């Protein structure tokens, strides 16, 4: 898989890291990407979560954050990023016949975050508050790599639209509804919540 390569560019006396983009140059700061379409200050600002929509962009951000955490000597963040990178690399190796997709990266993040939260609950049970807090902090850091999350009301609206679009009337139509709804909520909502909402709309339990 080709990874994003950051280069140093100069404009108006300023220097910044940027990665080539189909529409220009994608400038990087610690909290956002700015897509410059010309040498002038003609740019659009993208929050990291909303801009990162491909596996290539995701890995590019991950590598940039790894370098940043290393320079800052942020051990907790560094450990989280290294584990996440390792899991994604393993995912890519297992899918030798298919290209790594953004959705694959999102699933890895969700699984790792859930594992951390589950571990935190177990540590709570044996009164290891410090370790539980560490697990929750790692889960929080992992979730910064997820797309902006939809509210329950937003999921409800999208589910209703999907039900109407496929003409679903019973729980037997759930598969068709999910096929339409899935791409719109992938990585943006808890899958269990999505399933629960769809089942209720279709009269299931």
TrEMBL record:
<dbReference type="InterPro" id="IPR042184">
    <property type="entry name" value="YqeY/Aim41_N"/>
</dbReference>
<dbReference type="InterPro" id="IPR023168">
    <property type="entry name" value="GatB_Yqey_C_2"/>
</dbReference>
<dbReference type="InterPro" id="IPR003789">
    <property type="entry name" value="Asn/Gln_tRNA_amidoTrase-B-like"/>
</dbReference>
<dbReference type="Pfam" id="PF09424">
    <property type="entry name" value="YqeY"/>
</dbReference>
<protein>
    <submittedName>
        <fullName>GatB/YqeY domain containing protein</fullName>
    </submittedName>
</protein>
<dbReference type="InterPro" id="IPR019004">
    <property type="entry name" value="YqeY/Aim41"/>
</dbReference>
<dbReference type="GO" id="GO:0016884">
    <property type="term" value="F:carbon-nitrogen ligase activity, with glutamine as amido-N-donor"/>
</dbReference>
